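Throughout this chapter, every protein is written as a compact record of paired, labelled lines. The reader may check this reading against the record printed directly beneath this paragraph:
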Amino acid sequence: MYKLQEQMEEQVEMVGRAFVEHYYHLFDTDRSSLASLYHQSSMLTFEGQKLQGVDDICAKVNQLPFDKCHHFISTIDTQPSSFAGSITVFVSGSLRLTCEKHPLRFSQMFHLIPTPQGSFYVQNDIFRLNYG
């Protein structure tokens, strides 16, 4: 029983880390490709602004006032969620913008839902800059 739980935790950790790597790679190199990670029911809260659906989420992300950025990840915490194989991922790190002298600290939470095809999509996404 313990071995099975340990394997499940390792799998959740592996999926969470792979997702984070993929998400921020797309964000930093081709933001328009992020659309493939969301569904119409997906929700994003970005600095307090609530958006729902692929079109609204992608419009927000693609209209951010900077062209180039690079995410540096400090921590990734993952948990299995009680909803049918879903995973909660919490990320902290810094964001380097070409127009900023200093990196900006951020936190982001994702709730990943499994698809019948064996992948995951983002149901919930909450992003905040960390000030102070």
